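Quick note —
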Amino acid sequence: MTIEINATNRKAQGTGASRRLRNAGRVPGVVYGSGDANMIELDHNDIYHKLRAEAFHASILTLNLEGKKESVLLRDFVMHPFRQQVQHIDFQRVDAKKKMHIKVPLHFLNADIAPGVKEGGGKISHVMTDLDIICLPKDLPAFIEVDLAHLALGHSIHVADLKLPKGVEAAAHGTHAAGAVVATVQVPRGMVEAEVTAEAEAAAAASAASAPAPAAGAAKTAPAGKEGKK
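Predicted structure written out below.
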């Protein structure tokens, strides 16, 4: 499904002009790449609700700029520090022949049947929620699946273990490199504490059992001092 955004050219620029736009329910933005940058403005409520959809962040979007349509990617947006208000938004034009660098969301499957959860009582920890990938625009996936069906207790899934769609490769750098951990099954803290307590009690019992017993019939040491009167 194609997501379309309607925008108009923004003539006035500067801090004051942007403030007036926001007060009028508009959002200032920019479109750049493959030519001149265009200053644009968009309807706030429309773009605010689109930003709430996962697909909007990892899809080729159609920007309708006063009747002229072009393919773009969402590159950045700024929210107000405490209001539910979009302050600014950036889009980048897409070249169908050039590979692009983008983050796509990860969808985790079969967590409930993972051996580490079902049999080991562990809990899935999502170390990553998205993956940095490189691909041509036509190969861009809406998301990447992470199958947890065979994940055992204390084990992890790494970027290198993921089955990426055809034409898609993981960006081989930083925290998203091939050896980076995507998800792991951790032992619950309560279970670890119980095991530590049990081990400590077992060690104390073993120590007590191995201690030498006192000699039979051993006389008690008399208290120092004078003998009692006869």
